[in-house]
Amino acid sequence: MALTKVLITVKTYPAISGKYDELVCTAGFREDGTWIRIYPIPFRKKTYNEQYRKCDWIELDLVKNTRDFRPESFRPYSHQSEIRIIDHIDTRNCWAERKKIVLNNVFYNLTNLIDNAKDKSIGTSLAVFKPTEILDFRIKEVGREWDKDKLQKLDDERKQLNLFEHPENPFEVVKKLPYRFTFVLKDNMGKESQMMIEDWEIGQLYWNCLARHEGNEAMAVADVKKKYFDDFAKTKDLFLFLGTTQLHHYVSRNPFIIIGTFHPKKDSQKSLF
């Protein structure tokens, strides 16, 4: 198919796969305003010039991901497909240019959104959601290591493919986050939900805070909560990027997780009317 232009709004924290190595799920908007999911992408193995940021316009060769029933799901034509970064939308004028693209179709009611996901004629698996209220930010300690069998399989495959690696500088899989971060929120009908946050930025924030606090995990997670709850949820005009997982799309009561945030400053002009 022709090259597809995508405004990147979502990058999830890397996960490992026994089949594809370390992968990132990316999502964003096409020029017509429709959502698109791009998976798999071995993001950290891409060249520096291909490692896009949020709100970069990129261009790449995409085809429908026939192994994924979700309508928004596409994949690069090949692992070698080049990613071209062609522009970036900044935050000027209270994120005005970003808002024109991102806020065209916002959900306020989780029940309606979930119904759209479960309806096979619609199958919505990506959405912008505006919570009415963020009630809490919860932190739970989880396993600290990736699945050992998957790691061993990746290591065995690397040993067989040394010609594609540099033995003096081998690729190291990203560290697994030892905590799970969750928002407790309400929608416009007062429905309360707990939704896990899996975007790249919250993971990177944790590691940056941990380094700044010289390994003190309690202080690091407190800083993460301060950013997401005290700042984003209380002082910003917070919208959430939601996505389903393929495994749980039709079977979970609420198949959506938080895969990114959109948090411009509150528009003080609104309060005048």
In words, what does this structure look like?
With 273 residues, the chain is α+β, with helices and mostly antiparallel strands. It has two domains: 3-94, OB fold (Dihydrolipoamide Acetyltransferase, E2P) (Beta Barrel), CATH 2.40.50; 95-142 and 177-272, Nucleic acid-binding proteins (OB fold (Dihydrolipoamide Acetyltransferase, E2P), Beta Barrel). It contains five helices and 14 strands. The strands form three sheets. Strands 1-3-4-6-5 form a five-stranded mixed beta barrel. Strands 8-9-13-14 form a four-stranded mixed beta sheet. Strands 10-11-12 form a three-stranded antiparallel beta sheet, covered by helices on one side. β2 (15-17) and β3 (21-30) form a beta hairpin. The protein is globular, with a radius of gyration of 19 Å.
Question: Which features characterize this protein?
Answer:
alpha+beta; OB fold (Dihydrolipoamide Acetyltransferase, E2P); five-stranded mixed beta barrel; 24% helix
